[in-house]
């Protein structure tokens, strides 16, 4: 990824998070006031949900800002993983501030310990309708950013959502999706409570919102966990790099490929190659420099490239590779020539 491309991607993520922050802050205030006026546990749960989302957006903004810092002596691979750390904290924030409070409100209401309810229900309906409009605006921006990131990587948006390289966009989309579902749950709880006079519906809606937030927090935490541990780059990128390495005239065999996402649009690559035995030391050095440049030119998400000359038949190394990948690296990744499988001229096929 070029610097301009990285800046464009980061600017898009920042706009998405800022829009979500503004929407969630306004919605949280409206829901809290409506919850206090109506005494609805579902509305108070939704207010806590929006407060949690607001805190999440602040953490994501912190992630975007801190992850931009350049590499230095203490962090030679840069600070890109700060984005993953703060995203993990955001997931914990959703779990604590949103899910826990919603569960408490639902439990308290079902036990009959809530305050007077059913008053001014129209206020709740109006606030929920306004909240749905604001959340839809934020959700639309998040989906646009998600589709743009997926298209840039040549993936479908569903595939990108499963294994994103930028958890901030996924966080916003999942939060807004949960918020829209939560609004429907709160609306149903409020309406059924008003129609039946039973607070059970209101408390049940609050518990359902709590369960929804637990699922969202778990999904976001799993994404951040994978990236923090050291997730492999997109498999299409890995395959493309392997093919390009195998095509180099100095390379006899691609022995091993290791990749790791070290930040949004930043990939670390370590390739172990069996070079031709006819190369001398100077040839080998020039080949490494040339291959490095070729890879960076084609795969501009590469941040650091390490090329290590190794023998293909080293038993310890081969055992490690087989344990990690199976025999996939044993197969020749280069496409077969057009006349592959054809018998030589003048000789019939057997």
UniProtKB/TrEMBL annotation:
The keyword Transmembrane applies. It comes from the Bacteria. One of its GO terms (molecular function) is monoatomic cation transmembrane transporter activity. Residues 337-350 have a biased composition (Low complexity). InterPro entries: Cation_efflux, Cation_efflux_TM, Cation_efflux_TMD_sf, SLC30A9. It is found in: Membrane. This is Cation diffusion facilitator transporter. It comes from Rugosimonospora africana. The lineage of its organism: Bacteria, Bacillati, Actinomycetota, Actinomycetes, Micromonosporales.
